[in-house]
Design brief:
It is a single chain. The chain is an all-alpha fold. The protein has a domain of 106 residues. Helix content is 84%, strand content 0%. It is rod-shaped. The chain starts with 6 loop residues before the first helix and ends in an 11-residue tail after the last helix.
């Protein structure tokens, strides 16, 4: 990492990295909303396919956070003017708003998934009952063995 000469340069680097994070969080929010729409439509398989993309974005965030760690430590001790601090805080507030929106959507998605689980269980129960009735009817409707069919 290159040496940073001033507080403004530090803030520029932080803003640049956090801007990338903000884009990733917006993408995560969009994927989470897409999952919600798929769950609402009952397309659970397609919803599950988005987990790999979300995982990739989360790994990207983790890498950025590792790179940011020394900059964040320096930000806490570096004298930074109010305008730079405000610029950075505005971006951090936007990131936090995205994180909150993601968490809210994830909760809605979980509720949808739980309700779909109940629907699937009910459907499976109905299928099981129908199969049992069908088997019972088949047994009742089975022709009785004819006299010549009986083994002696």
């Amino acid at each position: 990492m290159a040496r940073i000469e001033s507080g403004t340069e530090l803030v520029d680097r932080l803003v640049s990295s956090y801007a990338v994070e903000a884009d990733i969080y917006r993408s995560l929010h969009a994927l989470t909303q897409e999952q919600g729409a798929l769950l609402q439509a009952g397309e659970i398989d397609r919803c599950a396919q988005l987990f790999d993309r979300k995982d990739e974005l989360l790994r990207s965030l983790a890498r950025i956070e590792v790179e940011l760690e020394p900059l964040k430590r320096r930000w806490q001790t570096e004298p930074i003017d109010t305008a730079d601090r405000d610029r950075l805080n505005t971006l951090l507030d936007a990131i936090l708003a995205n994180i909150e929106a993601i968490m809210e959507q994830e909760q809605r998605n979980e509720q949808l998934l739980l309700s779909r689980h109940g629907e699937v269980e009910a459907d499976l129960g109905a299928v099981g009952r129908a199969a049992a009735i069908s088997r019972a009817q088949a047994e009742d409707d089975a022709p009785l063995p004819r006299f010549l069919d009986i083994e002696r």
